[in-house]
Amino acid sequence: MTAALGRIGPLLAAQIAAVAVALALAPRAALVLAVWFAAWQANIRLSESALARGRAGRSLVAAVFGVTVLILWEMTVRLFGVPPVILPPPTEIAVTLAANGALLWGDFVQTVVKGALTGYVIGCAAAVGMAVAVDRSPFLQRGLLPVGSFMAALPIIGTAPILVMWFGFGWQSKAAVVVLMVFFPMLVNAVAGLKSADRMQRDLMETYAASYWQSLVKLRLPAAMPLVFNGLKIASTLALIGAIVAEFFGSPTRGLGFRISTSVGQLQLGMVWAGITVAALAGSAFYFAVAWAERRVTFWHPSQRP
């Protein structure tokens, strides 16, 4: 048997041996391990195939991995009898999602569209405008950026209740929290991006007698786009986190943060995980939308080459 295992590769041999040991000690654990290792081997073969070389193939590999995690989650909860109050199975979460679609859609609009997206647009636009001002002013470079680093380090747990008291319990206070969260990471990336143009390129613009604004539009903003989009991607995740956490400190009777916090108190774990799922899907779609725009705008950058 040892010689046979040696011929099929060390990883697969180790997996088969682990399943054999688990089968003798805990048959249910052996079944979970067998499915995990089978999916692992399938994903390895898929990732090494010609199909995975394109962007669609890489997405397929990620999808297979995600489906594997869900299957293992369902099997583990069912086989080991995990109480739903601790961890509900994915099928129960899906049923809760389907039964409360209209309610969760209202929460999505309140949190993502009104709170997160509005604050994201305002915060990122203000940060880019401030970055241009910082780029033109040595005083702001020395004075604003250190203050920005201090403000970025402020915990959202401390600032969110204050902003809720200032702006009320509606979505406006959630947007204000998002603006505060995304402004300074976006500012730092935009300032660094405006400085990323090559010195020779800037000298060339000066020899053409280009003004600051002409140089900004024709050279420095295009050169800054990779770092600007890096800031936009970071801010896309921070925006949703900020909007949801802000709803824990005061919200009308809707919103993903409100739904999660109240459902935890009522031990409705299916609804809690349904809200988390909606937030995760919204955040992933938001991030990939920014990444898609980045590929279209910065197609010339080496990071976008296949």
Which structural class is indicated by helix and strand composition? Answer: mainly alpha
H/E series, N to C? Answer: HHHHHHHHHHHHH
**Quick one: how many beta strands?**
0
What level of helicity do the residues show? over 70%
Strand content: under 5%
Q: Poorly predicted ranges (pLDDT <50, ≥5 residues)?
A: 1-8
Largest sheet entry: none
**Rg, please?**
25 Å
Average pLDDT over all residues:
79
Distinct helical segment count: 13
Description:
By secondary structure, the chain is an all-alpha fold. 82% of the residues lie in helices and 0% in strands. The protein has 13 helices and no strands. The longest helix has 36 residues. The protein starts with a helix and ends in a 9-residue tail after the last helix. The N terminus is likely disordered.
Draw up the topology in text:
Layout: H1 2-7, H2 10-25, H3 27-48, H4 55-80, H5 90-99, H6 101-136, H7 138-152, H8 156-167, H9 171-194, H10 199-207, H11 212-247, H12 256-265, H13 269-297
Key attributes of the depicted protein:
about 300 residues, mainly alpha, disordered N terminus
How would you briefly describe this protein structure?
The protein is mainly alpha-helical and 306 residues long.
